[in-house]
Design brief:
CATH superfamily: Outer membrane efflux proteins (OEP)
Strand order of the largest sheet: 2-3-5-8
Helix content: 55-70%
Distance between the termini: 58 Å
Protein name: Outer membrane protein
Strand content: 15-25%
Structural class: alpha+beta
Keywords: Cell outer membrane, Coiled coil, Membrane, Signal, Transmembrane, Transmembrane beta strand, Transport
Family: Belongs to the outer membrane factor (OMF) (TC 1.B.17) family.
Shape: elongated
CATH topology: Outer membrane efflux proteins (OEP)
Pfam family, one: OEP
Subcellular location: Cell outer membrane
Radius of gyration: 41 Å
Length: 451
Amino acid sequence: MKITSKIIVSACLFFGVTAFSQQKWTLQECVNHAMENNVSVKQIELDNKLAEIDKKDAYGSFFPVVNATASHSWNTGLNTNITTGILENQTTQFTSMGASASIDIFRGLQNQNRFRKSKLALISSQYQHLKMEEDVALNVVNAYLQILFNKENLKVQKQQYLTDSLQLVRSEALVDAGMIPSGDLFDMKATIATDKQRIIEAEYALLVSKMSLAQLLQMEDFKEFDIADVEYEFEPNTIFFESPESIYYKARQERTELKIAENNVKIAEKDVDIAKGAHLPSLVGFYSFSSRVSYADIPDGKGGVMRPQPFFEQFDMYKGHNFGLQLNIPVFNGFLTRNNVERSKVNLEKNRLALEQTELDLERNIYTAYADAKGAMETYLATVEMLKAREEAFRYTKERFENGMATAFDYNQSQTLLVNTQSDLLRTKYDYLFRTRILEFYFGIPIIQRN
């Protein structure tokens, strides 16, 4: 019975919990954390801010451009006396000030089209942000379900190890009773060693899946990361009441990637309008104001100094205004304008083709997702039936083995098929859950509601 005690102690060690997690993360918490901390999402948020700034730039083109200038200089040396006209060594100071303003009255509607384009670009950036959030949420759900699968698979492997450990005890009794040969004990021990190997592999797979989700959430300490234990049962999904055609029709109204492609076509159309506007004349209104002041200390010939006119009197005396209109008519610039128009037209056609390709990809993806989800459901149901058959087959083989009518090899073979089918059932269940989520996603149902 020494072997028995060692096996039982070993089984207890495998069921022991060695890791402590301060928080069990729910799926909702994982998605919320990813939205706030994922690097890709943050980058898109910065792109949104740049689009806002670009819109302000385009809006600012409707306002006048105003500049102010001022200068003050000293001229020391031989200069003409402004009173006598004689060259004398003196220091003369000059002050000048001015202000100017200009405004576009007409520029081929380029300013208006740039502003419209900036608003479309901002909308496109917001769609990109939404698309990135959807992709991140989808990846989080996939990683979360993978962890749940690995957890359940580990439970299956541990349960099988415990069952085989107890079976080894019964096999020892059968050997003592002379019902099975003693060599079968070696096969049972080999089976238990295989069970241990499967447990180690399952634990490693669970660790890797936790690490993948933790990295997706931008967490550094993935070793302490764990998720809440949630039981997802198989349930027929009402999405299958919809046809692929109806899902595609709904997706055409809802899908973000299609809205991005449509918006890009509109942006390209505005680029064409902006390029064409360079063919038209432009009219600019301008106004400027300037004045100057000059003064120097000039001897009056009587031992005194002649003072210049006061500063503000000179400023008022020499002030001037300049205003008018400037018309610019493009005549020839080396085909630059024409080439810009042709280039923008080519880019427009590329965006139209991209929109068409996006529609085709969306249709193909929906039909593929529908087939995958349908196939995952049928595979799961078939695996359920297979598991029932495997359980009956194993029960029958187990009874024959305990009665000395089957070998340990037969027992191990039947058990291996049962364990593999149990793992397949888990895999097909979570595959079905994820693929139906994707199909619902195309139908406009959020992957998960964000708080």
